[in-house]
C-alpha cells in the first residue's frame, strides 16, 4: 500500500494519501486548501490518480481542500450523511465501505467532536479525525459537539484491537501515530469512568474559540471554495490565517 501522512503546520492538521499501487487510484483524507498544490504534485510523483477526497467532519480550524481538489482532479468529494455541507458528491453512513481500487475503508459514525464526525478504518489502522487525538480528544464545545456522544464514540474505538494504529486529524506536539492500546493506557481523557464524568471533564477545559472558526466553518460549508457570494470574505480569511500563524491549534 502507498501511504503518506502530510502535515499542515499552520493548523496542525494531518492529511493522508492512500493508494494500493503506483499507477492506481488514490484517496485523500482531510486535505487542507493551502496544501492542494503539494498534494497534486506528490500524487503525480507517486503516479497515483486521485478519485476520492474525504473530510472526516466539518472543520473549524482550517479551510478544506475538497472543493479545490474536485475542481483540479474531478475527484468525488465525500463526507458523512449528517454533514450540512452543500456540495459533497458522496455521503457515507455508519458501516458503509469507502472504496478506491484495491482499498476498502469502513466508515464509523463517531459523533461528539461535531455531529458529522466519522472515523475510517483500514486494515491495521484507523483514521480518527478529531474524535481521538494522541493523548487527547477533539473538543466538544461547538459545532453541535456533544461530550456524551463522544464518550460513546470513544468506547467504540476502544473495542478495536490494541494494536490498531491511530492516525489522528491533528497533533500539536509533533506526534504522528499511536495505537489504541497506547491511548487506553496513557490518554488522560480516556480515564473518565462514564459519560457523565467525561462530560464534566470536557466542560471544564475552557478552550478559546479556534481562531479560524468564523471563516473556516462558513467556507467549509461550501467545500472551501470562495464563490462569488463569498469573495468579500477573502480578506478576513487571509487575516485569520495570519492570526493563526502567531498562535495555534484548535481542535483539542
Ligand atoms: Fe475538528
Describe, in plain words, how this protein is organized in 3D.
This protein is of the alpha/beta class and 252 residues long. Helices cover 27% and strands 25% of the residues. It has seven helices and 14 strands. It has helices at 36-46, 66-73, 147-158, 180-186, 195-203, 213-220, 234-245, and strands at residues 2-8, 13-19, 25-29, 49-54, 76-80, 90-92, 97-100, 103-109, 118-122, 125-129, 132-133, 136-137, 165-168, 178-179. The strands form three sheets. Strands 1-2-3-4-5-6 form a six-stranded mixed β-sheet. Strands 7-8-9-10-13-14 form a six-stranded mixed β-sheet. A two-stranded antiparallel ribbon has the order 11-12. Strand 3 (25-29), helix 1 and strand 4 (49-54) form a beta-alpha-beta unit. Helix 3 packs across helix 5. The two termini are 30 Å apart. The chain binds fe (ii) ion. Fe (ii) ion (FE2) binds at residues 57, 59-60, 113, 130, 138, 251. The site of fe (ii) ion has 7 residues, from loops.
Q: How does the major sheet shape up? A: 6 strands, mixed
**DSSP, total strands:** 14
Helix content: 25-40%
Proportion of β residues?
Answer: 25-35%
* Major β-sheet strand ordering: 1-2-3-4-5-6
From the helix content, strand content and strand pairing, which structural class follows? alpha/beta
The geometry reads as globular
**Which small-molecule species are bound to the chains here?**
fe (ii) ion
Question: How far is the N terminus from the C terminus?
Answer: 30 Å
Order of helices and strands: EEEHEHEEEEEEEEHEEHHHH
